[in-house]
Amino acid sequence: xCWKDASDKARLNCPSAATASSTACLAAPAPLCYHSxxxxxxxxxxxxQRMHCRTILALGLFLPIGASVRxxxxxxxxxxxxxxxxxxxxxxxxPPATAVSGPKYVPPVQExxxxxxxxxxxxxxxxxxxxxxxxxxxxxxxHVSEGGFGKWSDNGSLAIRLNLGYEGCDGFGTRVQFWGFxxxxxxxxxxxxxxxSTFYWDFYKRFYVExxxxxxxxxxxxxxxxxxxxxxxxxxxxxxxxxxxxxxxFYPFLRFAKxxxxxxxxxxxxxxxxxxxxxxxxxIGDTDQDMMTIIELAWGLEFRHRFGRREDKxxxxxxxxxxxxxESASLPGVFDPGFEGTSINFGLAW
Length: 350
Description:
Elements (H helix, E strand, L loop, with lengths): L5 H8 L8 H6 L9 H34 L59 E14 L2 H4 L7 E11 L4 E16 L2 E20 L2 E18 L4 E22 L3 E21 L7 E21 L5 E16 L9 E12 L1
């Protein structure tokens, strides 16, 4: 059924049109025909608008939910860009080996000039090139068997030893050493004077083992021995030369800022060939085929004090008991002398 105009529709569908609103009447269902097309378009427009509103509302709800799902656990959204900390675009990825995660302060490298000359010292504070000088004052007692001249006293006399040499910072060095002794005895054979001397030209290498020092070397040797029987006007004199080997050691057991106290020891063996020049003595004749051996042993204490700008120089004092044994192949055994003394050595390494 079709209506010619809107009034017919209102009268049929809305008997109480006087009291009902036009909106309610338009909402009532009715058959459609070409005359109802404007109302259909209106309803379709409102439906599309409602759909748009629902779509916008759904998007407004799902966007925050999606953002919260993508956020890492414990991460707090940052709303103020000015207060946000600096973040690298590489956050969340394993950085390469040379990547820098953020600005870092790198202190400037201080420039050091190359050292001039040798360092102050190596492993040992005494390892340096130096001239070495020493003088030993040695109260010494000589020993000769009573079977030779009868009674031989222990009064003794003073022996002197002089040292002069040079040593490089690599431990190789050379030195010359002289020792001399003279003693006069009143024996059954009258007054007898005994003179003895040695001369060594040494070549050596000094090894530094932590705080200890070990010196090994050898060189040329010379020795002289004389018996002068002054009461009888007779004398016999030996002149000899050969080789010697030796070793020395030092180990500090008390160490201070600029000084050390330690034990020192040395040993030497010399083998010499020489000749005797006899002037009337009854115990030996002239010979140029004599063999002489000399054995030296010493052990004691040494005090060292370092000085200088680099503390590479030092002076030292030794107190060392020492022993010497001389044996000649041509001299009867009762006349082979021995020497015993206490060396007081003053030395300087400059």
